[in-house]
Amino acid sequence: MEIISEEINHQIDKAKKGKQGAFKFLLDYYWNEVYGFQLKRVRNEHEAEDITIETFAKAFDKIETFDENYTFSTWLITISKNIQIDKTRKKNASIYSNTTDTSNEQVQKIPDHSPTPEDKLIREQNLAELLRYIKQLKPHYQEVINLRYFQEMSYNEISETLEEPLNNVKVRLLRARKLLAEIITRKD
Q1: How many beta carbons lie within 10 A of that of residue 105, not counting itself?
Q2: Domains recognised in the chain with CATH numbers
Q3: What string of DSSP letters covers the chain?
């Protein structure tokens, strides 16, 4: 337990320095916990997934404010809970507003390092086979994969096309690549 705690703290420190691998580690390690929490609350897979993506986007954007005296999972769950409450309030009030609009804030950029192992795998795969794998993803993951790798859009262009905050696009693409890599690994 102590080793895991030390590794998590190490990854948080790396994330605060903008290391992409640390963000991926934290996303992979805590995804199921945050998603499961939201699924119990909203009882809708798509909505739970969207809130989870927003949670990680917001957490990664504010990672430098995390206080190590607290548990990282508790911090994530609190962010997730607040996002869900805001969405519910806005839905109930019939007001459409983007809850993660950070235009007035300084956004910590998650570096766009290329190529990652997933990028290499995508380029090296047989296109027809790769398309079959991609079709196994949920539609919103298929869309970001298509925009990023087949239409070769930047994160900013994808953000504008989907009319979503940049951090949401980054987290959704990170999650899509992880799921696609799992599908490809299972098939091989």
Answers
A1: 9
A2: 2-92 (1.10.1740.10), 117-187 (1.10.10.10)
A3: -HHHHHHHHHHHHHHHTT-HHHHHHHHHHHHHHHHHHHHHHH--HHHHHHHHHHHHHHHHHTGGG--TTS-HHHHHHHHHHHHHHHHHHHHHTT----TT--TTSPPPPPP--S--HHHHHHHHS-HHHHHHHHTTS-HHHHHHHIIIIIS---HHHHHHHHT--HHHHHHHHHHHHHHHHHHHHHH-
pTM for the predicted model, two decimal places: 0.62
Q: Structure tokens of 175?
A: 């999650």
**Is-contact 58 44, C-beta < 8 A?**
no
For tokens 């190490």, the residue is 10
Structure tokens at 95: 């007001």
Q: Quick one: tokens of 46? A: 């798509």
So what's the pLDDT on residue 183? 87
Distance CA 80, CA 39 (A): 11
What's the pLDDT tens digit per position in 104-122?
444 445 455 445 555 555 5
| pLDDT recorded at residue 3 | 66
Report the distance separating Cα 49 and Cα 55, nearest Å.
10
Question: And the tokens for 66?
Answer: 């995390």
**What CA–CA distance (Å, rounded) separates 108 from 23?**
12
Distance between CA 112 and CA 154 in Å, rounded? 9
